[in-house]
Amino acid sequence: MGMEKVATGRAPQAIGPYSQAVKAGGFVFVSGQIPLTPDGRLVEGDVRAQARQALENLKAILEAAGSGLDRVVQVTAYLSDIGDFEAFNEVYAGFFREPYPARAVVGVAALPKGVKVEVAAVAEGGV
Which pTM was predicted? Predict the structure, then answer.
């Protein structure tokens, strides 16, 4: 099974030794996305604004891989304050439709760059 790097300028570049995503075994594995704009600017504001940007990044990377949000099978979201769960859900619901992907939402002590949310996903294939 080979592995192919996925990269796009429509999402922020990796801020460490990892790929935005990789394709392998018929799936696309998207690294955790935080609320950075494609030019690397941090989106300030509440968890809703930050979640929206993180999910837009996820969408752009999936599209670059030849996949899309409608092909996501699993999502892992990390919140620096689990009290933001409902607000995160409101934004998340605007990006995904039935049948919803499997999902885990985890409360964590801290995230890179002090952000409020990070989202990673696995999706079916890509061309």
Answer: 0.96
